[in-house]
Design goal:
heterodimer, A: 160 residues, Beta Polymerase, domain 2, B: 419 residues, mainly alpha, 2 domains, three-stranded antiparallel sheet, 8 strands, globular
């Protein structure tokens, strides 16, 4: 297995030709190249500009949006976006870290309509708020459900 | 920029559909110039499970539409977090229940990426063989139910006749007809029994003539043509913007297939064509799927002809359950077996995404490990979920009866959408 490349600087040096690295090198707060997968962490404020920059870099297809709850450590939430480039035949993972007491970020649905259901799902199951989403309602759970099932402090079985 | 830039053009929610209908009312005449909101499902036979649609219709024309999902949500992603890695495999069967081995493969590939396992050639060939048989299996159910929705009842029985042969093959190899769990982390679970390849060979020899038979029932049928041609159009730009994948994406003229473009499990060693169309209507998706079945037969044939010899699981005694014979004779194997069953195996911390081309489109598994024996997070990206978002774009301006044809043409499985 190729060794993991950690840190923005190291990734920029290792993959100088990768269009996503070129597009995001100014925005990224962290980067990782692990198991042939490129992961770029961007600050919450620059998610929209990052998503626009990678579209210009050839990543034209949003695969999915999901999240990971790292409770009890902080920053608690990791929102994960997978992009694909049909021309480069490569995948890119964009990550935004969010604090547990302020779990909100901008919705990319106005720019990437494919994110619509995925952001609603993350909102429903993790309780992360996407500002600017056209219809941010629960998707999987009933409207009157209490709590967010995929959070780590939500029990797997028994009563809430 | 995508063509669907303004948020109010994006697939609205149910309340939006109702509000739109109220906004579209004009005048005091209760009959003239009015739209109506109707509810379709979740117990509607042509919604392929428990899909609920709220439609705003003007006469018989669909003005807007919103899907309501979640009726089949069973929290599989949450359940995965409480299981050992190997215990997740049977759960993945139940997601896209028409192609369980494809789910298994996608999950196994993600975990193998985290473990950095080398999979022997025979296991890879078996995976390709059964993935393609699963594609035929899934497409047969699609063709049967799609034709039945539109009114061609006979085809359903023909398709299920062939599907029965496939289910017998799956039962022979795994012991189960549907929830096979055959493909495991590190390889496949069992050595194929004697006579299995012969029965697959018999199936492959007959099957192309069976596809001709379906075509003779449908392709020239004037009712079938009228119901399918020009219905459910989506532009290629909209299809990309809405995350459509699989046959609907290729029918829209985008030549992308994960098997060919980002090969996994030795697909790069197989020769096959990826059918593409530019018509992007229900008809194009029908023709394309039939073509895919013919290509799958060719891939299966290549897999049978070139089936390598050797092990069916990777050489990793701490991860893969030992052979039963060894367990009875060697203490080491017995210990490994006991440890794997009771404690599972630790997976190095990290995150990995796998991607496979399932019958319905691109299927991705995102697995996060924190270094313990249970996955920290498993996320499934199923094509059905994203394809459903495109339903409104495909149905707008069409007749109400065509919605049924369009739902059939995107081939959704609600188990994969709701998880």
């Amino acid at each position: 297995m190729d060794p993991t490349i950690l840190g923005t600087q190291a990734v920029v040096e290792a993959l100088p030709e990768e269009p996503a690295v070129k597009a995001l090198s100014g925005i990224a707060s962290d980067a990782k190249y692990d198991r042939n997968e490129l992961t770029v962490t961007v600050p919450r404020e620059s998610l929209i500009s990052a998503s626009k920059a990678i579209r210009n870099a050839g990543y034209n297809y949003l695969e999915d949006v999901t999240a990971v709850d790292w409770y009890p450590s902080e920053p608690r939430f990791q929102v994960v976006y997978h992009f694909l480039s049909f021309s480069l035949k490569r995948r890119l993972r964009i990550v935004v870290r969010l604090a547990g007491d302020d779990a909100s970020l901008d919705s990319i649905t106005p720019n990437w309509p494919a994110a619509n259901f995925y952001e609603r799902e993350v909102f429903d199951l993790f309780g992360i708020h996407f500002g600017g989403h056209p219809y941010l309602r629960r998707l999987m759970m009933p409207e009157d459900w209490q709590g967010h099932p995929l959070r780590k402090d939500y029990p797997v079985e028994g009563y809430r | 920029m995508s063509p669907i830039a303004a948020p109010d053009q994006i697939n609205p929610g149910i309340d939006d559909v109702i509000a739109d209908s109220e906004r579209h009312h004009h005048g005091n005449d209760p009959i003239a110039d009015q739209t109506m909101v109707i509810n379709m499902g979740p117990q509607h036979p042509s919604t392929h499970g428990v899909l609920r649609l709220v439609l705003e219709i003007d006469g018989e024309t669909v003005v807007s539409l919103a899907p309501d999902i979640g009726y089949l949500h069973t929290g599989i992603e949450k359940t995965c977090e409480a299981k050992f890695y190997q215990q997740v495999v049977p759960l993945t069967d139940r997601i896209d229940y028409l192609s369980p081995m494809t789910n298994n493969t996608a999950y196994a590939l993600a975990v193998e990426k985290l473990l950095d396992l080398e999979i022997p050639a025979k296991a890879q060939w078996l995976r390709v063989l059964f993935n393609e048989l699963m594609r035929i299996n899934s497409h047969l159910v699609w063709l049967g139910t799609h034709a039945m929705d539109i009114g061609a009842l006979t085809v359903f029985l023909y398709c299920f006749r062939e599907r029965e042969q496939l289910l017998r093959i799956f039962e022979a190899v795994s012991g189960q007809r549907m929830m096979t769990s055959y493909i495991r982390i590190g390889g496949v679970s069992l050595e194929p029994p004697l006579g299995l390849f012969e029965s697959i060979q018999t199936f492959l020899k007959d099957f192309p003539s069976k596809i001709d038979e379906y075509e003779s029932l449908l392709t020239g049928n004037p009712i079938w043509i009228k119901r399918l041609k020009g219905v459910g159009y989506i532009s290629s730009a909209d299809a990309i913007a809405l995350g459509v994948s699989g046959p609907p994406l290729r029918a829209a003229g985008i030549d992308f297939d994960v098997r060919r473009d980002m090969p996994y499990s030795s697909y790069e060693k197989f020769q096959f064509k990826v059918p593409v169309s530019t018509d992007s209507d229900v008809w194009a998706r029908y023709v394309l799927r039939l073509e895919e079945m013919r290509e799958s037969v060719k891939i299966c044939q290549q897999a049978l002809d070139g089936m390598p010899e050797g092990r069916i699981v990777a050489d990793a005694p701490k991860i893969i359950l030992p052979d039963r014979e060894q367990m009875k004779t060697q203490m080491e194997s017995l210990i490994h077996h006991f440890k794997i069953v009771t404690e599972g195996f630790a997976v190095p911390a990290g995150e990995a995404t796998s991607s496979v081309e399932a019958a319905h489109g691109m299927m991705n598994y995102y697995v996060v490990s924190d270094g313990t024996a249970k996955p920290y997070r498993v996320h499934m990206r199923n094509a059905d979920f994203a394809n459903l978002q495109a339903l409104e774009t495909m149905c707008k301006g069409q007749l109400l009866a065509d919605v049924v044809a369009v739902i059939g043409s995107i081939d959704i499985v609600l188990g994969a959408i709701d998880r």
